[in-house]
Write a structure and sequence with these properties.
Helices cover about 20% and strands about 20% of the residues. By secondary structure, it is an alpha/beta fold. It holds the Pfam family Glyco_transf_7C.
Length: about 300
Amino acid sequence: MKMANISTINWLFVCGLSFCLGGIAVLSFMPLSSDCICPLKNPLSSFSGGEQLSKNLISPQSGHKMAILVPFRDRFEELLQFVPHLTKFLRKQGVEHHIFVLNQVDRFRFNRASLINVGFHFTSDVYDYIAMHDVDLLPLNQDLLYEYPSSLGPLHIAGPKLHPKYHYDNFVGGILLVRREHFTQMNGMSNQYWGWGLEDDEFYVRIRDAGLQVTRPQNIKTGVNDTFRHIHNRHHRKRDTQKCFNQKEMTRKRDHNTGLNNVNYKILKVHDLSIDGVNITVLNILLDCDVNKTPWCDCSGTAAAASVVQT
């Protein structure tokens, strides 16, 4: 597939289900039924993006490869800022990496944790650690090293003493680096968290239960106001904090039943995309929901009913 170079687009608007230039579709993030492919065992060998990963790297220092997993839905203007910023930041550190945008295209509520599980399945044959990375959080302090986590456990880049918004001790959201074997050991993340929030708190309990511990960058001289740039506009995009059915009760508990081993999904399309000369990979991901187990994946019931009809 020919790459769409976003740096050449002077103005961009939504046209049907595709991003368009002057009425001509240049990129579609939405699925077509004929595009459906099954989850891939060794995905990077089957599309051209895998052949071009090294072009974005300079002087790899560690021999390790990091997959940056970015859960995503309707954040295109943030992605345009995120990709060049983070790439420049990591190039200075010589971190071998590639950005994978995990684009949820079903009609259920957003599920950050399940998307990360899917991204891990897609990349784990090639990359030996992942960065679970919010698209709206840009690191500013070059002393924040995206290095291979220690054997102790995950490396939390956006610690509570540094994050611009969240400051409680058990916080592990924003940017968390996890070794491949540790993520597998914990069975990934819970698939029960539809809507915004709490999935990272449940993951903290998984870390603890696995006998691992969270480490954080040391001797960082900046603080909550100048370590990161938070580009989320809460007035433009309101977070989906609705709680329906028995969601509030169930999502306050440790989930021993779901995770990496039973996330239910299809990858509908793999896109190679270039933003300001940086090659990234976009996965169009269709998540499935068992409404008998987690009816809060669709508080309105509309998407769930449509899913049943399609099935």
